[in-house]
Amino acid sequence: MVSWGLIGASTIAREWMVDSIRKHPLGRVKASVSSDLSRAQAFSDQMGIPDAYDSLEPMLSDREIDAVYISTKNDQHLSQALAAIEAGKHVLCEKPLALEPKDAQSIVEAAERKGVVLATNHHLRNMESHRAIKRLLREGAIGKINSIRIFHAGSLPQSLKTWRLFEKAAGAGVIYDITVHDADLLRFYLESNPTKITALATASGEGASGIEDSVMSVWEFPGNILVQCHDSFVVGYGPRGVEIHGSAGSILGIDVMSQAPGGRVVLRTSDGEQDIPLELKVTYDRGVSDFMAAMQGKGRPSSTGEDGVWSVKLAKAVAQSAATGQTVLIEQV
Predict the structure, then answer these.
(1) Where exactly does CATH 3.30.360.10 map onto the chain?
(2) Is the Cβ–Cβ distance between 295 and 66 less than 8 Å?
(3) What pTM did the predictor assign?
(4) Secondary structure letter of residue 12 according to DSSP
(5) How many CB atoms neighbour CB 314 within 10 A?
(6) pLDDT tens for residues 155-174?
(7) Which CATH architecture has domain 124-283+313-332?
(8) Which of 220, 234, 250 minimizes the C-alpha distance to 327?
(9) Within the chain, which residue ranges are assigned CATH 3.40.50.720?
């Protein structure tokens, strides 16, 4: 068995991650940690988890726990990941790994020194829809790619309208919550990194002044590929998806930017329009399975620590451009 400790009694842990860990033949959730012991205990009771703590130390000293899943506020990921690595635990961390690229890199280096597996929980690259899109790209189904449009704009659920809208120091705002996912998805599709980013952001909804809830950005990738991303917390009724356009056709990912399986992938070429068959699999199941295989020396996590460093770097570039009104060269971030 592989025993897990949960750092953070979070919504994503409750709705997705506990089940995904338990679906694995070797997966077991042994403990949860929250800064509020009553919250940790209530979470553990609800989810049938044996132990609950209000600090990291007792859980990290438990020799039965092999791996931890971190889903706390963004600014806490760095210290918690480093503590878990130092204790010899494998770490699956929510995005962003940290709020600065150098801090995210320090987590990667610590895991390498300690010989433990580190992964970033970027879920979109594990969705069947996005994997189907990548297969089409690799097969050359639309010829040479020339542009991509991501519309990752939705309405923030009421349960999440807390620190994400009000605590700037904790990494609040749509860029480190949503745009960071776009960064990983684009790198997954294109297997390359952008060279420059230009962005505009605004605070137009329920959050605190100065905390962006909408951002639009334009990215340039090698090969003269232009990308436009629209990310928002305040679009309640729009579609969420992706369009990839090439010299010989287009791929449409319709309603594919969520946590739940579903949506459609459509290929449009001179031959007409074709719906691509998709299996409805829970994206987090694959992430957990790949992570646990890596723990056993079989392959790599779906999204590595290095992938997490890059998504932080690109999110920071978007934030810098929005703040300064200048195009940001990625090599200077």
Answers:
(1) 124-283+313-332
(2) yes
(3) 0.96
(4) H
(5) 27
(6) 988 888 899 999 999 999 99
(7) 2-Layer Sandwich (3.30)
(8) 220
(9) 2-122+285-303
